[in-house]
Amino acid sequence: MFAFCVEPDLLPQWQWFACYLTSGTHLAFYWSFLVVMLLLVVVAPLALGMGMLGALAVRSRFFPLSWLGKGYVNVVRGVPDIVFFLFVPIALGQGIEYVLHQINCPDWDQPIRQGNDFIVCREARFPGVNASAWARNVYAFGMAAIAFALVFGAFVANTLHGAMQAVPRAQIETAEAYGMTRGQSFRRVVLPQMWVYAIPGLSNIWQILIKATPLLFLLGIQDAVFWARELGGAKTSLYTYPHPDWRVWYFLVLLVFYLFLTWISERAFGRLSDGLSRGQATAAGERQRRAAA
Amino acid sequence: MRTCQESFDAYFLRPLGREFGENLLPRGLEITLCDQIFLIGGGLIWNVYFAVLAILFGFFMAAGVALAKFSDNPWLHRPASGFVFFFRGSPLFIQFFFFYSAFLLLPRVGFDIPLGFVTLTIHTSALTTAQVGGLIVLILNTTAYSAELFYGALRSIPKGDLEAADAYGISGFTRFRRIIWPTMLRLAWPSYTNEAIFLTHSTTLVFLSAFPARQQSGEAFYYARYFVDQTFNPFVAYPLVGLYFVCLTLLIVGIFGLVNKRLNSHLPQAARARFRFRPQYVR
Question: Do B224 and A83 touch (CB under 8 A)?
Fold first, then answer.
């Protein structure tokens, strides 16, 4: 990074650290924090979408659909999430390869599961045999995002369903009295008002989502945990920057990063909740009205 | 092929260590369904060990931390709030890493604390094992989460109850033991049941990364992962471990429900606090 970094052994303390902290692997470490943020940004709307679909399915008057929605919400919530995080990517990966195998190689006569191997034809490999390392990383990240969206979608579905129920019944009755259809009263009355009831639950889920991101490490993605382990471990004099076991400091940095992230989002949700309470028939809305008057 | 009886003898107690079963875990093609059922089931011993001890210690520590956080004295309130913020604001997964690498830095042989008449030797090597070090992290973590629940309950003790205690001349420790403590427990119990469930589920994280599983003795999920790595088939071991955890969850709901009944026994049926299953597994 710096011009004086040619021979780190001879450098004084501060220059040594300046070189050490800007080495190529450290830049990858800093980059991995962005990967964590990227996962949050990708998963949040996906989970919100899944949750909305789930909540609508649970509410549906079409019996199989509501049964499907309830099954999804309860099964995912009833089993430890870590099982899902590890199960979904591998099961989905095998599912994709199985489907591609059926499409591309219809005249394959051997079974796909032979003993402990999962064998599909060459054309059915996904990502392909010649895929670049970059494509493989994107694939792994996408699988992780889907697993997260599935698990958190169930949490969100539960919260949104509760929020829809919490909108005062009298308001829906009024909408019906004005001759609105079920769909219209949902769009015009329930949907705009449900968020104030959903925010506490959603904020909780967001905090849980933040705290779930280190599990990316288990899915083989080079995230902050991976690099903290990698960089912190003791380095012998064979390395350019030898040092003893510094893992505890690296993990301290990670802890501070997560504490900051949860702290800042708690404040952000507090402000959002204030904004949404404006003009609502709730205790918080009433307090705002009194303060203004 | 092993029979089911052989699998049971070889692997059910294997999670306790090598002396209790086969030396090696089943490998590759020789893995049978019974192997998976019994080895994963046997691993639950450790999940129960971590959960029971962490809940037991965590319960009393949480009560202390909650009272400290509720106190007006800034010297009690500040550290208690900081403790709760630290453990609730960061992922348990990283806490395991952090404490493991911190425990590794402690001197191997332990250190002596001279107390004048006797020298106390603290052995630190045990701290790097999951059974001690991992348990400590779990205890601290559940202490923080439960303390927040108890703190919320303390804040919502009805004013009338405290005024009635004052009117009867009940004060000091008697007031705490007879009025505050039972009411706090009663109010917090439904959410505390959820906390016990999350804690039990998060015992699956102990062996996942930092703390090593010595002699391949780990908890249920550790073995489930082992089997999936060996057979490359996620459709047996993961559902199995999920099923075991559903059973554990039902057991906890049952036991905590009995306590809840006792805590509410003086109240009319309609006024009793009810447990609602609200899982938030990741911490």
Answer: yes
Gap from A118 CA to chain B (nearest CA, Å)? 7
Domain that residue B234 falls in: 4-271
Asked whether residue B281 is assigned to any structural domain, the reply reads: no
Distance from the B125 Cα atom to the nearest Cα atom in chain A, whole angstroms: 17
ipTM: 0.84
- The predicted-structure confidence for B80-113, as pLDDT tens digits, reads as follows 999 999 999 999 999 999 999 998 888 766 667 7
What CATH number did the domain enclosing B142 receive?
Answer: 1.10.3720.10
- Render pLDDT for B22-35 as a digit per residue (tens, 0 to 9): 888 888 888 888 98
Residues 167-186 of A with CB under 8 A from B: none
B156 phi and psi, to 5 degrees? -105, 20
Q: Would B282 be classed as within a structural domain? A: no
pLDDT band at A155 (very low <50, low <70, confident <90, very high): confident
- Can you give A98-167 as a three-state secondary structure string? HHHHHHHCCCCCCCCEECCEECCCHHHCCCCCCCCHHHHHHHHHHHHHHHHHHHHHHHHHHHHHHHHHHC
Q: What's the CATH number where A247 sits?
A: 1.10.3720.10
CB nearest B245 (choices: A80, A91, A212): A80
Beta bridge partners of A114: A117
How far, in Å, CA of B86 to CA of B66, rounded? 15
**What distances in angstroms separate CA B204 from CA A145, B96, B107, B174, one per listed residue?**
21, 12, 29, 41
> Any idea what the Cα angle at residue A171 is, between residues A167 and A173, rounded to 5°?
115
